[in-house]
Design a protein that fits this description.
By secondary structure, the protein is α/β, with parallel strands linked by helices. It has helices at 13-22, 24-30, 90-101, 124-147, 164-172, 221-224, 230-237, 243-246, 261-268, 290-296, 299-312, 316-331, 333-341, 345-379, 395-404, 422-425, 429-456, and strands at residues 50-55, 60-71, 78-84, 87-88, 105-108, 183-186, 191-195, 211-212, 241-242, 254-256, 385-391, 408-420. The protein folds into two domains: 13-109 and 228-456, no CATH class; 118-224. The strands form three sheets. Strands 1, 2, 3, 5, 10, 11 and 12 form a seven-stranded mixed β-sheet that branches. The protein has a three-stranded antiparallel β-sheet with strand order 6-7-8, covered by helices on one side. Strands 4-9 form a two-stranded antiparallel ribbon. A hairpin with a 4-residue loop joins strand 1 (50-55) and strand 2. Helix 1 (13-22) crosses helix 12 (316-331) and helix 10 (290-296) runs parallel beside helix 11.
């Protein structure tokens, strides 16, 4: 294998660009790329939520994402659709967090586990399963902290060094599914983690029985050593950060407004997502779930992508190339996905169903939460300002729904999410321009191929 003078892995520009292009589906899915609306929803054509800003003075290129505010009436709460790229600059997420915190309510995207959610209609059987999963997560987190050399004396120590969405999830797992705090005790050999069941008292039978970490299958080394997902790996390779670890989600006015991983998996497998239950697992479509394997970094596809990203992250130039790929791909995502969505046959039907699940089903959850917040505002106990914090590709369809509800856009602001500048990358203005042209040709080739497939169908 050839090595550069610095003994780092080397790839030609063409080979590296081809490898980056192979990750295009991940970028589109991770960013929530848009999808062609139904005929009934085309009356309003939203302005884009993504654009490329070229810096003439330096030759730099920046991906910008929109924040668009809507108003229906002077007494109604304002709604701001805050688009986000799931991989970006640290300063970008710091800026977004400050803007979001200026709102009374933030409805945010986050496909979490079903056992982290509870509602009044949840059965005791489901609460038992959910509680077991929460106990296990606290156990895994405690073992991870101890393996890292951190002191673990209280349950609070299990999330002391966690960040972002993970910290919120671990902290929420400190109570069982009946709302009672878990009992936690650190010992020399491990941890005692218990729930007293539905009645909150020792002993009992059925749903009242105590639940303990000691009664669950042993936590495996693989669980303790769980690696980063593919989006985190991609962020690191590009010298960027991953949204779910870069931002603080543990705030009272931030509300998770999304489906669950289990419900999503059910829907992708063609099953009723309402049938998903804690402890029921996630069905696999077609003998495997390539989407979840890819996003988690597991499976052959995930491992190949992870290996490629390690090579990419080895030099400033290849990191810059990855950033340019992200910028150019995201800027053209809507056109590519619209073409893919128009395909006929089994491939087109499969993609159409996948995007319906990833976009429409999740947007429906947000719209229900928006209606509930508006009802609260009408009663006088709801928010005056609401931010919907979601992948930028979701927002075109959300905007159409808001317009159908009588809302109208009043203001659009743009923020820089990802940038490539010659002074920071070791690339010249000409090299950046050349890479952009190469990426554009590859994207154009992909769109031409999709158009040809449409015509054949």
């Amino acid at each position: 294998m050839h090595r550069s003078r610095s003994a780092r892995p080397f790839l030609s520009k063409t080979a590296l660009a081809a490898g980056l292009a192979a990750l295009t589906p991940l970028v589109l899915i991770g960013a929530g790329a848009g999808f062609a609306p139904s005929d009934a929803a085309t009356a309003h054509d939203p302005e884009p939520y993504l654009r490329v800003r070229e810096i003439e003075e330096t030759g730099g290129v920046h991906l910008q994402i929109a924040l668009r505010t809507f108003q229906r009436g002077p007494e109604e709460p304002s709604l701001t659709l805050v688009g986000v790229a799931h991989i970006g600059e640290p300063a970008y997420y710091a800026d977004l967090e400050e803007r979001l915190d200026a709102h009374d309510l933030v409805l945010f995207e986050g496909v979490g586990p079903i056992w982290a959610e509870t509602d009044e209609g949840m059965s005791d059987r489901d609460r038992v399963s959910a509680t077991k999963s929460r106990i296990r997560l606290i156990g895994i987190s405690a073992m991870q902290r101890r393996a890292a050399g951190d002191p673990v004396r209280t349950i609070e120590d299990t999330w002391a060094h966690a960040s972002g969405y993970e910290a919120r999830l671990v902290k929420a797992s400190a109570a069982d599914a009946w709302g009672n705090p878990l009992r936690f005790e650190a010992t020399d050999s491990g941890f005692v983690i218990e729930s007293l069941g539905a009645d909150g008292a020792p002993g009992g039978r059925g749903a009242d029985a105590d639940l303990s970490l000691a009664d669950l299958p042993p936590i495996t080394g693989e669980e303790i050593e769980a690696g980063d997902g593919i989006q985190t790996q991609m962020a690191g390779a590009a010298g960027l950060v991953f949204q779910l670890t870069a931002m603080d989600y543990d705030k009272p006015h931030w509300v998770n407004s999304d489906t669950t991983a289990e419900a999503l998996s059910y829907a992708l497998a063609g099953m009723d997502p309402d049938d998903a239950r804690p402890g029921g697992g996630m069905p696999q479509a077609g003998g495997g779930d390539p989407l979840f394997d890819l996003m988690s970094g597991r499976g052959m596809i995930g491992k190949i992508a992870g290996g490629l990203l390690k090579i990419i992250g080895a030099s400033p130039q290849s990191r810059a190339m990855l950033r340019l790929m992200l910028i150019e791909t995201l800027a053209n995502a809507d056109e590519m996905m619209d073409l893919a969505g128009g395909m006929e046959g089994d491939a087109g039907a499969g993609l159409s169903r996948m995007m319906e699940v990833l976009i429409d089903q999740r947007n429906a959850v947000v719209l229900e939460d928006i209606e509930a917040a508006i009802d609260g505002a009408r009663r006088g106990d709801g928010p005056e300002t609401i931010a919907i914090f979601y992948g930028a590709g979701h927002l075109g369809e959300m905007e159409r729904s808001l317009v159908e509800m009588g809302y109208r856009p009043t203001e659009t602001q743009w923020v820089d999410a990802i940038g490539v500048d010659p002074a920071d990358t070791g690339m010249t203005r000409e090299q950046i321009g050349g890479m952009r042209r190469m990426m554009s040709r590859m994207i154009e080739s992909q769109t031409d191929a999709l158009r040809s497939m449409q015509q054949r169908d």
